[in-house]
Design goal:
heterodimer; A: 371 residues; alpha+beta; 13 strands; 19% strand; B: Rossmann fold; 38% helix; globular
């Protein structure tokens, strides 16, 4: 520590410059992580909240399943009859409307059976009633000014949805969710604006069947028999619109940042090590053990990288607080700590690239006026 | 306390570029006086210091410091001998830039696993002994060539080493400083009763030495 700290103090300008670069990289990684988590939540938090283990889609839907898949009542009933499986149909579609007070509402309509395990828990107001009508809105819609007792009228279809209650934050495809009975959802999903016979009963079809499968359930055989394709709930996130593309984009940015971080830190320490080869050679000539020189370099690197990463992470957290709910940004403590750990590891990995030069300083250069 | 080089050969380069800098050299140094190693450039003065100081392992021969063969030690063992038993004064002092005079000395404490903070008094005592107590907080760029050499001497003496190796101490100082520095080295050799070997071109140093080893003559004798 003696040598490391004295060198840090002596070359504080250079180390501060390096620290600023690491601060910016850590802040950028933190902010991108925040957006990755936030966008992910904004896309699939409603699916993540589903108290289901699997989702069964129609067998012909291979991509964007929540939009493409349609299963009928017989399929849903078939799943319900499976041993070790609880099943309930669900509907998912995106629509829009407005309240009588003129508040516009974008709505991810989730059709659920009010008596099933998918029925939402309400934070305020009342829940869905079997055989009734109405909608339980997620917290974001309430934050936009929609209140219990308002009525949301779906654009062009004129379907009226009395707001019964409010549940927690829940989104699908960046649109806040409204939970409604399956019949109401089917009217929204299958009605054609302005078509003759708009009042006719909609087809008994749903987007998918939500399953709660026990350990012994054999889903593959049921899939084959019922003509469905079942995904684990977390796998079904990819069925949400844009989810995979967003993840690939954001993770690519993160990947590049994690590649850049060690290279930048490594380049700095490589130049720093080359510059102080004479000092390292002198220390070797004075009998410094290679291990001590390595520790000395690592202490310097760790001091700069850890301190700068913590500042950068603090900046990212501050950016999150400043942004509030204006954008989909979420940086929970675990993600923040993960960011700190990853940037620190990347930075130290960059330093490791230079360590061979530290130990290979030649003490012989101290003699014969070589310096 | 003795330092003996027995049949020491050092070869630089390979093939056509091979150069036998030392070839079967035998020489012995004793404590209590200053030995000047003189000779023209390329005669092997610095190589002799490198071998004697465990910085360079000879191709063959033995380097016995008080009975321990330095040539037979591995890299880590030679580093340990260097930091615990050998003091060095390199040309121009070779101090750590940005370190104060007192920190230069405390660096040796750190390298030998001691807590530098506990040895500040000893470091200041050494600076006083070389006449630089008032310069303890100065960095190398704030010191003259002679002062740098004195700091290097104080650093070399921190552990009272039995062997002090000095490379061209007067190369970068004026006549007056050269004389003062030489006097300090002679005094150190006598007071510390250690082996002091000085590689030099400077007749001032050679004249003050109790013994002069002429590398040109030694090399001729060994070949």
């Amino acid at each position: 520590m003696f040598l490391a700290l004295r060198e840090l103090r002596a070359a504080k300008g250079r180390f501060a410059l390096m620290g600023c670069v690491v601060v910016l990289i850590a802040a950028l990684v933190g902010i991108v992580s925040g957006f990755t988590t936030g966008l992910g939540d904004d896309t699939v938090s409603a699916l993540r909240r589903l108290p289901a283990t699997h989702i069964a889609f129609s067998g012909d839907a291979r991509t964007d399943q929540f939009a493409r898949s349609l299963v009928d009542s017989r399929t849903a009933a078939g799943w319900g009859a499976e041993k070790g499986v609880q099943a309930t149909p669900m509907g998912v579609s995106i629509t829009r409307g407005s309240t009588g007070r003129g508040v516009p509402v974008d709505l991810a309509a989730f059709g659920v059976d009010p008596g099933s395990f998918l029925a939402p828990r309400v934070e305020s107001g009342a829940g869905l009633r079997p055989g009734g009508d109405g909608v339980v809105i997620s917290r974001q819609i309430a934050d936009d000014g929609v209140r219990v007792g308002d009525t949301i009228v779906i654009d062009r279809l004129g379907i009226r949805l009395p707001v019964l209650g409010v549940t927690g934050r829940s989104s699908y495809g960046h649109v806040p969710v409204g939970y409604m009975p399956l019949g109401t959802w089917q009217r929204i999903r299958f009605s054609v604006p302005g078509a003759a016979g708009a009042g006719a009963a909609p087809p008994g079809q749903y987007s998918a069947v939500a399953l709660r499968a026990g350990g012994g359930a054999v889903l593959g055989a049921a899939d084959e028999r019922l003509g469905t394709r079942t995904l684990a709930r977390d796998e079904a996130f990819a069925a949400a619109p844009g989810y995979s593309g967003e993840r690939i984009t954001m993770n690519s940015i993160l990947l590049f940042l994690y590649l850049i971080a060690p290279l930048v830190v490594g380049a700095f320490f490589a130049v720093w090590t080359v510059q102080r080869q004479p000092e390292l050679a002198l220390l070797r000539a004075l009998g410094a053990a290679r291990r001590r020189l390595l520790a000395h370099t690592l202490v310097q690197a760790a001091t700069v990288v850890v301190a700068s990463t913590l500042v950068g992470a603090g900046l990212a957290a501050g950016a999150g607080l400043a942004l509030g709910s204006a954008v989909p940004f979420s940086l929970p403590l675990t993600t923040l700590l993960g960011t700190v750990a990853a940037v620190t590891a990347a930075g130290l990995a960059g330093t490791a690239l230079t360590l061979r030069r530290v130990t290979s300083a030649d003490p012989l250069t101290m003699l014969g006026g070589n310096r | 306390m003795t330092l003996r080089l027995e049949d020491v050969t050092v070869v630089h380069g390979k093939g056509d570029a091979e150069n036998r800098v030392l070839d079967g050299l035998d020489v012995e140094f004793a404590s209590g006086g200053l030995t000047a190693v003189v000779g023209p450039s390329g005669s092997g003065k610095s190589t002799l210091l490198a071998v004697a100081g465990a910085l360079l392992r000879p191709a063959s021969g033995r380097v016995l410091l008080d009975g321990t063969d330095l040539a037979a030690l591995n890299d880590a063992q030679r580093a340990r001998i260097r930091r615990e038993r050998i003091g060095y004064m390199f040309q121009s002092g070779n101090l750590l830039p940005n370190f104060t005079a007192v920190d230069q000395i405390l660096t040796v404490a750190h390298l030998t696993g001691r807590r530098p903070g506990r040895h500040r008094a000893r470091a200041e005592e050494l600076l006083e002994a070389v006449g630089l107590a008032h310069r303890r907080g100065h960095r190398p760029e704030q010191l003259s060539g002679g002062e740098r050499q004195r700091v290097a001497l104080a650093r070399a003496l921190f552990l009272d080493p039995p062997l002090l190796l000095v490379d061209e101490p007067t190369a970068a100082v004026d006549r007056g400083q050269a004389g003062a520095l030489t006097g300090l080295l002679v005094e150190t050799a006598e007071r510390q009763d250690c082996i002091v070997v000085v590689a030099t071109h400077d007749p001032v140093v050679a004249d003050a030495a109790g013994r002069v080893v002429d590398m040109a003559r030694l090399t001729a004798m060994s070949t």
